[in-house]
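Please go through this protein, sequence plus structure tokens, and consider how the sequence yields the tokens. Keep your notes short.
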Amino acid sequence: MRERRLLEDGATKAEADLLRAARSYRVPDHVHASTLAAVAEAASPASAVRRITPRKVAGILSCGFAIGILSLVAMRSMHTSQMADSTPSAPIVATAAPEALPPSPADSAFAEIPSLSVNALPSSAPSANPNTKSAPPRVVDEAEELAAELAGLDRAKRTLEAGDAAAAVRLLDAHRVRFREGRLVPEAMALRVQALIAAGQRDKAEKLGAEFLKSYPTSPLAARVRTMLATENGR
């Protein structure tokens, strides 16, 4: 009868099933006291076995329901821990979005730059004034320059052979000014030495001859210059 009252006294379905399963189980007397102490220690937290009264504990132990009550205490403990784990956490407070910053002066400056349409661009570059005449580049033809230099020497030589030594000296002076860096400078100097001797300007002839021999000692004309300086009339 006590077992039936325990089953009917506010027990849940799971608790009742455990008690029924433990009816046929009997424990020896020497285990009775130790089991009671263990159950009392396990049932000390009020939150775990708040519905199990001392009268139920005594009745269960007297009927040999030690295993049933231990399973019941474990079930209550697990249910309590699951309830604690399912407790909702503190609500998440949504933070307000930061306010938009005012445009900087640099952004305003770029916004004020006017855009240029493609259609506004000129289709082609403006043509140059057709009336403007560009001076042609001066092209120095080395062949023509050499021909002019040779022609000047030939003219002075023919003048000297014609007996006009003074005119030949003047032509050679002008030739030296124009073709100072020419290719026939040694030939022009040797002919001028001859013209100076023929014109009676011996001092200038000897000075120019010494300069020639110093500048062109291995020239084929060096022997001729020495011969002209050794003779009276340069021939």
Remarks:
- The radius of gyration is 68 Å.
- Confidence is low (pLDDT under 50) at residues 45-52, 56-69.
